[in-house]
Amino acid sequence: MTEFEKIRYAKLFIDKMANGINPLDNTPIPEGELLNHVRISRCLFYVSDLLEQMATFGTAKKKSEEKLPFFATEEQIAAFDYALHPLNASEIIKRLEAVIQNPHMKSVSVQLVNQWLVAEGYLYIDNEVVSGKPQKMPTQKGEGLGITATLKEGKNGPYMLLQYSTRAQKFMVKNINAIAQTGKKQE
Fold it and tell me: Taking the domains of the chain in order of start, what are their residue ranges?
């Protein structure tokens, strides 16, 4: 059996279980059984979609750049290692990717996080230019959440460092799927 056939076969089983059917004998799974729980069913549908994507990418010409859409499960979000000190967005993303551990999944960029925070009213674009660029700064709402901005000096000159308190980290990680979906709409 080829890898493609194995994925299709596994997807068939997952689809049946997600729809409340025993894949071994095609009989309905009794009410009250674990596989008939709505949260389990949703997870199975999600896995089925991932298998479909794997099968689709597997049949396409070696598109090594093609990756699965970003998604963090509730369990992965719950396992995130929050820092007691402020972190920048790239460190938060790096920690989240360490929990997810899926090299076949797209990453969420700092730029995308910032765009989402601007759209949601936590950051604004300050036209005061630092190193030739307008800077993103926390709004009053952002400051209330625990987002701070500090002027730093880097190898390419001064820049504004945005940092996120533990509360702001929790907010960002809780909303990471919405942030990733924003990027999907813009692509």
Answer: 3-59, 74-186
Q: Which residues contact 108 (CB under 8 A, 6 or more apart)?
A: 70, 93, 96, 176, 179, 180, 183
pLDDT at 41 over 60: yes
Contacts of 151 (CB under 8 A, 6+ apart): 130, 158, 159, 160, 161
Q: How far apart, in whole angstroms, are the C-alpha atoms of residue 126 and residue 74?
A: 35
Q: Are 106 and 185 in contact (CB under 8 A)?
A: no
130 pairs with which residues across the strands? Answer: 133
Mean pLDDT of 60-69: 60
In whole angstroms, what is the distance from residue 114 CA to residue 167 CA?
17
**Percent above pLDDT 70 for the chain:** 88
Average pLDDT over the chain, rounded to whole? 84
